[in-house]
Every structure is written in structure tokens, then in C-alpha cells.
């Protein structure tokens, strides 16, 4: 984040703005960018021409698009394949939670059922009946389940994929949508194998066997071997679940990546870091947009800023799963007392002021500390307002908290 502070160019120098924007976007990997290359070019184009208003409105539209673009995920598969469990895993809810997708051994999925993500309102996961149970040819099945509404399809199986599911995949491609084959319950397979062959058991080999067994069906049906993701809905940080998430993010259109990434459970430190990076991009865009129009640097902090910052911090805590409610759930799952979890995190105390001190004063103190750690006092005339630096500080704090909590609770599982 050092580069954000070192740039103190004044607002009228468009050359600096252009190079700063270009440099920032260049450093972000293509597969994690939240705005498209065309949008980046458009911003640069306006800036080069000195059309500040134009650049500002392009960023404004891009941010609105990121906030509002609906994401719809279709999850299909035969009864008992693990659809509900997969949906619950993606929504970060436990089966016994009130609005969890019902998991069970009986066939509970007869029609498509939408499940909204509890934190990301634009994300809906759709539980679809398996193609085998519907008795329709693929094209009709896709029409019935309203295929055009989804961003992609997850085809789930706890055994091998059926010929009908392979045909479904072909039909999905024909409709210009993406599909992903997901083989669930590999934890069960590994356990069974271990029981039956305790001496010669080799986990990697078993996984390889499951994979080639699945792939066989494709070659037998003259289809190219697709990537098959072997997962366990009970152990998300293991096997191919993290790779599946990376693949989904990479394949999504830029503007949908931000919310999808934020929706994902904190299963690994890499996943948390990814959330951090994606949120940083968003704040950066907001700050940059704001800075384009700011003619006078805002020196102090107004009460409105303070209120908004409070809201932001709380929002980040929820998104990163380090808010009070999440801590309670985590405490219950990991059997670590909630007070202990609170004690090892920093974000719950960020807004605690000492006697007589206002939040505004406290925030300025954070800024001073932050600035001196980054090598020097914050220069006036930054085109990023101070409130944005505070958002970066908050973001860093919740990220660190999420990692600390992951380490503590993971070691207990
Ligand atoms: N060990 C293990 N069990 C799983 C996994 N995924 C699902 N299960 C269990 O398998 C059973 C069926 O899972 P569901 O998620 O209800 O399957 P479904 O596809 O929604 O089934 P229907 O609603 O009947 O269509 C439940 O008891 C789950 O707890 C997994 O990855 N590993
Ligand atoms: Mg179900």
C-alpha cells in the first residue's frame, strides 16, 4: 500500500493521474480484476484528454455495476449427490441453521429453489432437480429450469456422472453457458478405502482413481475430458474446493468477481488474502473517483465522515466474518470461548475511544501512526481523502483478524 501514500501529485496534473491509474491496474492480475480492460482503457482515455468528469462517471458506473450485478448459480445433480450441502457450504451456513438448504437422505428437491446468500444480497444459489428425476431431454430440461438466468452450472455427483449429465453439459455449452463437474463426498471414499486397505492405503492414489473413473465416462461418450473437481462439502479447505473457487472467479465477468469473492467462506489464508485484494481494488476505485473531483483537500474530518467510517468498519467485519455474530458461531463450532476469540482480534476495539476523545480524533491518530509507519507525515493535497486511508486501515485489520481466527479455530477442528 506504500505506493498509495507516496503519490502526492496535485489534482490538475492529468499526466500523473493517468500514470497512477495505469500503474495501479497494471499491477493487478488479469484474473482478479474487478473492472474490465475496456473500462480501464476508457478511464485512461478520458484522463488523457483531461475529461475528468468523463473518467469520474465511467468509474461511477463501474462501481454501481459491481454493486448491483446479479449472480445466479445453478446447482444440479441427482438426489443425494450433495447439492444442498454444497449450497450451504457456499453460503457459509450450517445444515441446522434456519434458512439452510435442507440436507437429507430422502429426495427433498423437486423444483428449483432459490437460496440467497446471507451477506451478499445479489448472489442467489439455485437448487435444481437432477436431470434424471425430471425425465426431460437436456434441451427441455434447460428450458424448464430457466437456463438463461444463470451465470454457470455446477453439476454435482457423489458417484460417476451419468450419460444424461454429459449430454446436459453439451447442451449447456450450446446455450453458451459454463458448467463445472463436481464430484462430492471424496472424504467418504478415502475413509472407506482406508478401512478396506489399512496397510496399502494411499490417499493420492485413491483420488487419482476416482478422477480417472469419472473421466472414463467422458471418453466412452466421445467427449473431451473436462476438469473434474473432487471435493468434500465437509472439508472445504481440502481437495479441489479451493481450485474450483479460483476457477469460478477467473471465468466470471469482471464486474461479478468482487461480490462473488466476498461471498466465499474464509477457508484458507489465501482466500482471505484474495478478499482483501478485491476489497482494496474497490476502495481504490472509490477513492480515485472521489479524488478526481475534489479540488480542495479536506484537512479535518467531519461528523458525516466519522459515521460513514463506523458503518464501513462494521460492514467489513461482517464481510470478513469477524463481527460479533460470526465470533459467536465460531466459538460454538470450535469450542473456544467467545471472549478468547474477541481478545485475539483487533477490529472490535478499533472504535473504542479513550475518555474525552472523539472518534474523529481517534481516527486522526490512526492516520498519523499509519503515515509514520509508511515513511513520513501524510502530505496535504493528496487526491485520496483521509477517510479512504482509514478504510484501508480497517480493511487490513479485519483481514488480519480473519487470519488469526482461522489459525485458532482450524487447529481446533
Ligand atoms: N461425507 C460427506 N457427506 C456428504 C457430502 N455432501 C453431502 N453429504 C451428505 O450426503 C447426504 C445428501 O446430501 P444433500 O446435500 O442433502 O444432497 P442433495 O443433492 O441435496 O439431495 P436431494 O435434496 O435429495 O436432491 C446428506 O446426509 C449430506 O450430509 C460430502 O462431501 N461428504
Ligand atoms: Mg437437497
Structure description:
The protein has 413 residues and is α/β, with parallel strands linked by helices. It folds into two domains: 2-67 and 266-412, no CATH class; 70-252, Rossmann fold. Helices cover 56% and strands 8% of the residues. Strands 2-3-1-4-5-6 form a six-stranded mixed beta sheet, with helices on both faces. Strand 4, helix 8 (163-174) and strand 5 form a beta-alpha-beta unit. The chain starts with a helix and ends with a helix. Mean pLDDT is 87; it is low at 1-12 and 376-383. The structure holds guanosine-5'-triphosphate and magnesium ion.
| Spatial strand order of the main sheet | 2-3-1-4-5-6
Task: Report the bound ligands by name, code or SMILES.
Answer: guanosine-5'-triphosphate, magnesium ion
Total helix count? Answer: 18
Look at the helices and sheets and give the structural class.
alpha/beta
* CA(first)-CA(last) distance: 34 Å
Could you tell me the radius of gyration in angstroms? Answer: 24 Å
Average pLDDT, rounded to a whole number, is 87
Uncertain stretches of 5 or more adjacent residues:
1-12, 376-383
The residue fraction in helices comes out at: 55-70%
Q: Main sheet?
A: 6 strands, mixed
Q: Could you state the order of secondary-structure elements as H and E?
A: HHHHEHEEHHEHEHHEHHHHHHHH
How many separate domains make up the residues? Answer: 2
Strand percent estimate: 5-15%
Question: Per the principal axes of the C-alpha atoms, what is the gross shape?
Answer: globular
